[in-house]
Amino acid sequence: MKYKIAKEFPDNIIFEEAYPCISLYQPTNRYSPDNKKDPILYKDLLRNIEGILVERNRKNDIDNLMEPFYKIGQDKDFWNNTLDGMAVLANPHKCIVYRLNIPVNELSVVSDSFHIKPLIRFYQSMDRFQLLGLSQNDFTLYEGNRYGVDSIELEPGTPVTMKEVLGDEHPGSYTTHGTYGKADGAAMYHGHGGKKDAMETDIERFFRYVDRFVLDNYSKISGLPLVLAALDKHHGLFRKISRNPYLVPEGIRGSYKSLKRSEIAGKAWKVMEPFYLEKIQDLVDDFQDKRASLLGSQDLKQVSLAAVEGRVDTVLIDAEKMIPGRIDYTTGDIGFGNIKDPELDDILDDLAELVMRKKGQVVVLPKDKMPYKTGIAAIYRY
Questions:
Q1: Chain segment 196-251, per-residue pLDDT in tens
Q2: pLDDT of residue 59
Q3: Long-range CB contacts for residues 164-169, cutoff 8 Å, separation at least 24
Q4: Which of 43, 152, 274, 289 has its CA at a distance of 20 to 30 angstroms from the CA of residue 280?
Q5: What pTM, to 2 d.p., does this model score?
Q6: In what order do the strands lie in the sheet with 94-100?
Q7: Every domain range in the chain assigned CATH 3.30.960.10
C-alpha cells in the first residue's frame, strides 16, 4: 500500500468504515541539520503504534498496516522536504500524509476513529485567506492562515505575465512613427509621448485580466478573503478596476518579491486578524443567543446526543483541551478513560468528526476565545 500527500481536508479516509484508524502527528524541521533528527523521532512513534497493535492482538496485521509508514521512513526525498509538522492517517486500505507549516505535538493513536482536531484547526476557513502578489509584469497567488502562506500551483500554461497575457501587443516600442521630409529622402522618426500612456493602458489591461482570473477561478470557488500585496501606486489602480467582492480593504503595500515568505505571512495576518476576531465574536454571540433560547449547549453529554441525532449546526471546540475517551456514534453515549491509554482518542476530537459526518460546521478555537471551560459550545439546527 502506497501513501499519498494530501492537500485537501477533510479527506474521505475520515468517513470510511475501516478499522483500526491510525493517527500519527509529529513536529518536523525544514532545514539541515535539525531535520536529520526527524526520522529518529518518527521511528519512536512507529514503535509505539506497533506496540499498541500487538496489545490489540493485531500482530498478524502489522506488516500490512505499517507498510506505508515504513515507506515514509525510508523516503529520503520526503524527509528533505518537510515543513514544521506532519500528520499521517492510515487504515487497512489507505494512507495519507499532511505536511503542515505549524508545529504539532507528538501523538500516536490507534483507535476506531482518527484524531483530526489539529487538522481541523489548520484547514478551517475561519482564519484562512488568499493573497495576490501583483506587479506590473506578473502575479503570484498564495493561500494561507495565521501560521504561514504557500504558493498556489496554477494549471500548467496559465498566463501569469503581462507578455503572456497581451501577446505580441506587448512589449512594443510605443513610438508613434511619422516622417519629416529631408533633402536626402530619409525618414526621421518621432514620438508623441505615447509610450507612457500606452504602458499605463497595458498595465490596466493586465490587471483586469488578473482580477477576472482570480475571481472566476479562485475567489468564487473558495469564498476566502483576498489580500492584495503590491506597490502603493498599483493598489489604487487595481482596486479601481477590481470587481472581486472578496478583496479586503487593507493590503500589503510594497513589492511582495522583496519579502521573505514568512514576512508576507506576518504582514498578511496583521491585515486579516481583525476579520478573524470579528468572526469569532459573532460566533460566540450567536451561541449565547441560541443557548438562551435552548438552541445551544456547553454540556458535553447533551451535545454528544444532539450530534448523533444530526442536530448540531456549529460546534466550537477548545484547541488545547483533551478529554480522553470515546463516543458511541450510534447512541451518543460517552465512555471516559485514561489519557495514557493509547487506544482512546480525545472525546472532543470524536465529537468533531461526528459533527462533520452529519454535515455540521466545526470551529477549533484557542482556549481564551472559548465561551465556556467545558471545551465545547454547540449551536443546534432546531
A1: 788 899 999 999 999 999 999 999 999 999 999 999 999 999 999 999 999 999 99
A2: 78
A3: 165/205, 165/206, 165/209, 166/202, 166/205, 166/206, 169/202
A4: 152
A5: 0.79
A6: 4-5, 94-100, 85-91, 21-27, 107-111
A7: 4-115
DSSP H helix total and E strand total for the chain: 11, 17
110 contacts 49 by C-beta, under 8 angstroms: yes
Q: Judge whether residue 146 has pLDDT over 90.
A: no
Three-state DSSP class for residue 226? strand
Q: For residues 107 and 349, what is the distance between their CA atoms, to the nearest angstrom?
A: 13
Q: Are 229 and 131 in contact (CB under 8 A)?
A: yes
CATH H superfamily, domain 4-115: eRF1 domain 1 (3.30.960.10)
Residue among 178, 35, 26, 19 at smallest CA distance from 112: 19
Topology of domain 126-271, per CATH? Answer: Nucleotidyltransferase; domain 5 (3.30.420)
Cα 84 to chain centroid distance, Å, stands at 14
Residues 98-145: tens digit of each pLDDT = 999 889 999 999 988 999 999 999 888 888 999 999 999 999 999 999
Q: Could you write out the three-class secondary structure of 294-325?
A: CCEECCHHHHHHHHHCCCEEEEEEECCCCCEE
Which phi and psi angles does 258 have, rounded to 5°? -85, 0
Edge-to-edge order in the sheet of strand 312-318? 296-297, 376-380, 312-318, 361-365
Confidence (pLDDT) at 176:
40
Rounded distance, CA 184 to CA 254, Å?
Answer: 52
User: How many other β-carbons are positioned within 10 Å of the β-carbon of residue 185?
Assistant: 7
Q: What does the alpha-carbon distance between residue 264 and residue 267 come to, in Å, rounded to a whole number?
A: 5
pLDDT digits (tens, 9 = 90+) for 335-359: 998 756 656 679 999 999 999 999 9
